[in-house]
Each structure stands twice: as C-alpha cells, then as structure tokens.
Write a structure and sequence with these properties.
Layout: H1 10-13, H2 17-28, E1 31-32, H3 33-40, H4 44-56, E2 60-65, E3 68-73, H5 75-105
Antiparallel strand pairs: 1-3, 2-3
Length: about 110
Amino acid sequence: MARASTTSDAFNAIAEPRRRHILEFLAGEERSVGEIADALELNQPSVSKHLHVLLDVGLVDARREGRRTMYRTNAGALRGIHEWSAMFARYWRGRLQRIKTHAEGKR
C-alpha cells in the first residue's frame, strides 16, 4: 500500500522531528514564524515550509496580525493523535505494573 502524502495525513506530518518541535513550541502560546525560527534555531524558509505542511493537515491554525501571521496548535486536530498514542501508554503502564508485581513477588 502506498504511503499517504505528508500533506494529507497528520501522522506523516508529525513523523518529521522539526514539525514535532514546532508543535511543542506552539503548545504554550501563539507565535510568529520569526519567533519559531529564533527559538528553534531554524531558518525562516524552513519554518514556513513546515508550518505549511502542519496547516494543510490541520494541526495548526493561523491568523493575520498586521504584517505577521500568528500560528497556534489546533487542539481538536491533535485529539486523534493523542487518542491513538494513549493506547500505547495504557499498554506500557500495564507492562510496567506486571514487572513491578513480578519484582516484588521475588523478594
């Protein structure tokens, strides 16, 4: 099966580490391209490219503020990713509990 386009699938979009870093940085508050580029030590064209991908898949929203465009995470779009990854968190909590129970039983 062919892999989904990065610009049509949120999971493919966040597979790129710099995009995850941008999302993490935007989680705190709305930021401009320049602020993101400075904080993450990336060049502005690269940040703009990554933001365009994140916008296309709906993981960030943008609004104009004078000459600047301000970006923020789209919590609703991130919900699907969160719910999917929560399945693995439950798995690991269960595994760790079994290890703890086993270790305490051998004492």
